[in-house]
Design brief:
189 residues, single chain, mainly alpha, two-stranded antiparallel sheet, elongated, Methane Monooxygenase Hydroxylase, Chain G, domain 1, three-stranded antiparallel sheet
């Protein structure tokens, strides 16, 4: 059976995500900034900045920097993912980034916060929540199907996020244990 330990790595994924170095772009001239014992800057407008994600998030939140377009999960990207996941004939599980769910969580949090002062963001938030639920449900169905099939190749498993690989491994253990109990001969009658 599975245990809580099967999913304890979720916190580790988030910790790694928050501390992974990312790139943001400075939007204005900024003098040196101290965060704890670490200093960043000075920055010039347009400069690409390498920083841990938690620092980058603060730089973006304070208006000093912006996310690079290719690193941003937004409603348009989420809509494209939804379309790709929900194609009725698609049984394949499309690749997603290893840290998709962390980015999704931040998108939903940002939209919820923005919706407090902007009603249009409230509609965006509701749409993002629905798209997210559909994406997650489609992917769960496909993962369950993968676990019931013969062992998967690394190519297929490479399409899964960190959390999905954890789910796949936990479900695989359950199915293997179940099959072994069903298929093994019983000695008592």
């Amino acid at each position: 059976m599975y245990s809580q330990n099967d999913f304890s790595s979720f916190d580790d994924y988030d910790f790694d995500f928050r501390n992974r170095t990312v790139k943001v772009i400075a939007v204005r001239e900024t003098p040196e900034i101290s965060m704890g014992e670490t200093t960043f800057g000075p920055f010039r407008a347009g400069q690409e900045i390498d920083a841990p994600r938690w620092v980058a998030e603060e730089l973006v939140r304070s208006g000093i920097a912006k996310w690079r377009e290719e690193d941003k999960l937004d409603l348009a990207t989420l809509s494209k993912m939804h379309w790709r996941e929900t194609i009725p004939t698609s049984r394949q599980i499309p690749a997603i980034e290893a840290d998709f769910y962390q980015k999704l969580g931040r998108l939903l949090t940002d939209l919820r916060i923005q919706s407090r002062s902007d009603p249009s963001k409230g509609r965006d938030f509701e749409k993002a929540v629905q798209l997210s639920k559909d994406i997650v449900n489609c992917r769960i169905r496909k993962i369950v199907s993968l676990t019931a099939a013969p062992a998967q190749t690394e190519d297929v498993l490479g399409n899964l996020s960190n959390e999905e690989r954890t789910l796949y491994r936990a479900l695989s253990r359950i199915i293997i244990e179940w099959r072994n109990k069903i298929e093994s001969p019983r000695t008592e009658l």
